[in-house]
Write a structure and sequence with these properties.
Helices cover 65% and strands 10% of the residues. The chain contains seven helices and two strands; from the N terminus they run H-H-H-E-E-H-H-H-H. The mean pLDDT is 89. The protein is mainly alpha-helical. Strands 1-2 form a two-stranded antiparallel ribbon.
Amino acid sequence: MRLPLLALLARGPAHGYELRQDLEQLLGAAYPQPNIGQIYVTLGRLEKSGLIEGEQVEQSGRPNKKIYHLTDAGREAVQAWFEETAEEPRVRDDFFMKLALAPQTGLADQIALINRQRRQYLNTMRTLSKLAAAEDRDHRISQLLFEGAMLHLQADLDWLERCQEELEEPG
């Protein structure tokens, strides 16, 4: 949450509720929205680390609000984030570790693990399909997020199929 908030502040000062609204408008239902408490906690941490500065602004008839703006260090952090590439493919996968250790422990069956994980991925795909269908088709960013998640899930399902084929083959 840190870097997306910094990126939003790169275009200009804002307060926490504005940042939350901006995230909702940008990402739609495709991305789990943070609660406002999480946003303000994150803003507090960013301020303590010197990446943003907050300024109290008086409002007539309402409590003061705090407007945040990016510092030079914050702008450098956002620029560095945009220059980073995404992580390498998952090599340290929790499910794969379970699959590898199951025969050694005698506590779980590998094929049962695969089937349970497959059901989870299929349920997740159904949920994403419903969310994508309910989302505005013109919300391109949201639709791209849904599509990417579905493609990753399909690749995971294909990999599970490959694992099952390999494990069921006679040694």
